[in-house]
User: Which sequence fits this backbone?
């Protein structure tokens, strides 16, 4: 029996449509089909934003030094010191932002090591999201894509995460380790065949990346992580995929990334941050707290099956530095209404905590990344992680733990708004170079929108005169 030509055409179109529906709807990565990018451009709203974000004059990097960086807005406290020497600042957009995302964002803490800076951003989408890991070379002033999550997973899955919410850490094998996180609680469910989020590793030299484990705690996301680089143990604080407490709430786990073996998993974990004592391998955190003040517990990897135990110390830990050579870790609390964000010290030798002082320099409080320089004296951080840091001029803060002095080494707003139309509005990733001369900050940036719409990196070259005792 013969069919008319138009019938054959309709059948072919229908078959093609069915095949298309079976394909995963993942976001494009660098170098993907131009047609996909053109399709995304047509979806552009009336806000006039373009993707990828571009610097004026077609520049790849905007580099400048200006006295404008030292002009404090009225919101800054009178006892806050302002630097005398303006830094040089490099500004660069992350290249993967070629399409309009749910919201381009940085949620995971970065790492400065071996003369490079490693950071992550994502499109915040799920179940069809993507997240990206980059290496920045300050000598070349260039970002290099190391991996994207979708390419590593390499499966036609219904659930693909769009966030990296934990730390990036480098093991003694030279590989970077990190974990993925959901884009929303409505998609980490059985409907999307959700089994749990991933631990992934990537080799900065070759760019090779692979999955270490999926769902070390079944059906849980991993918004909090830290790697012990010497013992190669990956520690995580989880969140139930459903967003409810029917899966034991927040869990703490320890995972051997070499032997791919779960060492420990237990209740009352840390939702947001942990302290790692590299000298002993012990891990400390405040159970069930997202950064508020509480009693610290200790996990000892020499007794991997034993539950974490309470110690006498009390502090707030929304973010923490690495351990100094003198055995000190510095933390900052989340802060709350009527309770400002405070900086604490924790002695890993005596396991004693001490309140140092307030962290804010103006009206904004929330801090999610804090770093200590190689001398152990200066802390660096940016208040207002979740947005609106421009209220205080997008300040970059240096804190002297000896004199308890807060000093702003640069106000990035309104300089970048006036020069390139970009407002650095918050960050979850700062890292001080091991030489102590450069501070890397991955910003959530807004270009005229109510919230942020893209991510950018700034490198603050700290004048030597501003880091001398």
Assistant:
């Amino acid at each position: 029996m013969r069919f008319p030509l138009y019938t054959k055409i309709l059948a072919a179109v229908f078959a093609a449509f069915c095949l298309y529906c079976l394909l995963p709807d993942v976001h494009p990565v660098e170098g993907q089909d131009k047609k996909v990018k053109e399709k995304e451009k047509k979806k552009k709203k009336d806000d006039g934003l373009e993707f990828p974000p571009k610097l004026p004059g077609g520049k790849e990097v905007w580099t400048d030094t200006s006295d404008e960086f030292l002009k404090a807005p009225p919101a800054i406290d009178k006892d806050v010191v302002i630097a005398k020497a303006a830094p040089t600042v490099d500004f660069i957009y992350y290249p993967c932002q070629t399409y309009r995302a749910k919201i381009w964002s940085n949620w995971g803490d970065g790492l400065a090591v071996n003369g490079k800076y490693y950071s992550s951003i994502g499109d915040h989408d799920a179940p069809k999201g993507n997240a990206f890991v980059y290496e920045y070379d300050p000598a070349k002033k260039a970002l290099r894509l190391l991996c994207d999550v979708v390419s590593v997973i390499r499966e036609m899955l219904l659930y693909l995460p769009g966030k990296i919410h934990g730390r990036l850490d480098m093991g003694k094998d030279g590989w970077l380790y990190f974990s993925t996180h959901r884009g929303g609680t409505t998609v980490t469910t059985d409907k999307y065949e959700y089994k749990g989020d991933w631990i992934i590793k990537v080799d900065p030299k070759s760019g090779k990346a692979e999955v270490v484990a999926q769902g070390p705690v079944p059906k849980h996301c991993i918004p909090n992580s830290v790697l012990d680089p010497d013992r190669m143990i990956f520690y995580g604080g989880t969140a139930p995929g459903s967003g409810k407490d029917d899966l034991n709430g927040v869990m703490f786990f320890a995972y051997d990334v070499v032997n791919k073996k779960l060492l420990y998993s237990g209740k009352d974990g840390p939702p947001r941050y942990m302290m790692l004592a590299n000298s002993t391998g012990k891990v400390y955190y405040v159970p069930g707290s997202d950064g508020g003040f509480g009693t610290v517990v200790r996990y000892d990897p020499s007794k991997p099956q034993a539950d974490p135990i309470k110690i006498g110390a009390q502090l707030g830990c929304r973010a923490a530095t690495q351990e100094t050579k003198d055995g000190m870790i510095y933390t900052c609390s989340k802060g709350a209404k009527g309770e400002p964000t405070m900086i604490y010290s924790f002695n890993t030798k005596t396991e004693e905590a001490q309140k140092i002082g307030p962290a804010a320099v103006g009206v904004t409080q929330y801090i999610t990344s804090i770093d200590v320089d190689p001398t152990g004296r200066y802390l660096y951080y940016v208040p207002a992680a979740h947005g609106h840091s421009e209220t205080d001029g997008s300040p970059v803060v240096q804190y002297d733990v000896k004199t308890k002095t807060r000093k702003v080494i640069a106000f990035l707003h309104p300089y970048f708004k006036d020069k390139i139309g970009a407002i650095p509005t918050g960050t979850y990733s700062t890292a001080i170079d091991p030489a102590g001369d450069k501070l890397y900050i991955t910003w959530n940036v807004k270009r005229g929108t109510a919230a942020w719409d893209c991510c950018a990196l700034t490198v603050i070259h700290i004048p030597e005169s501003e880091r001398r005792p």
Notes: Confidence is low (pLDDT under 50) at residues 5-44. The chain has two domains: 38-100+366-469, 105-269. The CA atoms of residues 199 and 213 lie 5 Å apart. The first helix runs from residue 5 to 22.
